[in-house]
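Structure ticket #2291
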Amino acid sequence: QVQLVESGGGLVQTGGSLRLSCAASGSTFSFGAIGWYRQAPGKRRDLVASISSGGTTTYADSVKGRFTISRDNAKNTVYLQMSSLKPEDTAVYYCNYHFAWTNYWGQGTQVTVST
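Resolution: structure written out below.
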């Protein structure tokens, strides 16, 4: 099984930057796709960025140009670099690992952007 641990969340001011990390266990990490999701209070959990095993990335329109997802397979880690943060980015951020029929979630890390 794969275990995911997010870190890097915290309290930042509008316009600030933050880098989230998702550290994964398991030897199949490099074969899987990773998605960063976020869930604000009272809202659905939405995909904000993803990266495939081949390095192809996707982004939600709301974060394009501000967020960058990357992966370091040697470290079994995926990153989400967040810049120009807005209060609307406030949410719990989760990473998700998908490979074949498997699908795993981390515990989430809180990101709060103050005005």
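Closing remark: The mean pLDDT is 96.
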